[in-house]
Amino acid sequence: MAQIEQMYGKNVILELKEVSKTFLQSEKNDSGPTRRHVVLDRLNLRIREGEFVTIVGTSGCGKSTLLNIIAGLDAPDSGLISVKSNNNKNIGKAERVVIFQEGALFPWLTVTDNVEFGLKIARIPKELRKEIASNFIDMVHLTRFADSYVYQLSGGMKQRVAIARALALDAQILLMDEPFAALDVQTREILHEQLLQIHKSTGKTILFVTHNINEAVQLGDRIILLSPHTRSIKREIVIDYPKPRDIESPEISAIRRELLNELQEDFRFAKTHS
Ligand SMILES: Nc1ncnc2c1ncn2[C@@H]1O[C@H](COP(=O)(O)OP(=O)(O)OP(=O)(O)O)[C@@H](O)[C@H]1O
């Protein structure tokens, strides 16, 4: 942690201090007694501006809970979350935008209407709205489909619309919760490439939750491993190799193995403590 604080002390855009979250859960069925399930226990995290952070961990360890808390969709029981506010904040700009596995789009609207949606709510003038939407639709390579309805698109295209919509809102931080999990391998590879290009050209800060170790090592500048054991961050691995990365290279393979070992250990722990 000290090493990371040294490296990331400057330009911290997001900071979580001692964040905890407990859910009440029914024991076997809804009518059974309830128990307290501590998901996050005094978690500390700092994210630097422009950083691409991937979050991994065994199923149920709290990855989505963490992302929802950062997004402001859920509240922690205790702890502090600070987001560096955008000084140039205009109407229509969002600090944090979440992109879920199921793009959360309006299927009955066109690609352009979906990307423009938030801007319209924010009363951005029509001409400017069109210009912003067309710019980001172009960035995700969907110009040919700008007037298509979302229900007509493939899963990968829908996720590209969701990314364009988040970019149009000029979110400071993109929060991505397994956005490509439902896609086939080839589409996922293409979207990885495009997301890396977008990250490079926009410099956005990205927090990306995934089950997939390969995805985590391909995309992340830093990997955060959440654990059901510590109920917090168990490991952080800074990956200082240029992208795109060859996941078969000795350096990246070593990181993959390391993560796999950690995940297996946590999986065994979760199994014996569930
Ligand atoms: N609203 C809720 N009420 C009760 N329990 C909840 C609620 N939301 C999440 N949980 C529980 O909190 C734990 C963490 O859930 P979360 O969805 O954050 O895990 P995850 O790491 O994202 O899992 P997965 O990888 O399977 O998506 C799980 O045990 C889940 O059942």
Automatic annotation (TrEMBL):
<dbReference type="GO" id="GO:0016887">
    <property type="term" value="F:ATP hydrolysis activity"/>
</dbReference>
<dbReference type="InterPro" id="IPR003439">
    <property type="entry name" value="ABC_transporter-like_ATP-bd"/>
</dbReference>
<feature type="domain" description="ABC transporter">
    <location>
        <begin position="14"/>
        <end position="253"/>
    </location>
</feature>
<protein>
    <submittedName>
        <fullName>ABC uptake transporter, ATP-binding protein</fullName>
    </submittedName>
</protein>
<keyword id="KW-0067">ATP-binding</keyword>
<keyword id="KW-0813">Transport</keyword>
<dbReference type="InterPro" id="IPR003593">
    <property type="entry name" value="AAA+_ATPase"/>
</dbReference>
<dbReference type="Pfam" id="PF00005">
    <property type="entry name" value="ABC_tran"/>
</dbReference>
<dbReference type="InterPro" id="IPR017871">
    <property type="entry name" value="ABC_transporter-like_CS"/>
</dbReference>
<dbReference type="InterPro" id="IPR027417">
    <property type="entry name" value="P-loop_NTPase"/>
</dbReference>
<dbReference type="InterPro" id="IPR050166">
    <property type="entry name" value="ABC_transporter_ATP-bind"/>
</dbReference>
<keyword id="KW-0547">Nucleotide-binding</keyword>
<dbReference type="GO" id="GO:0005524">
    <property type="term" value="F:ATP binding"/>
</dbReference>
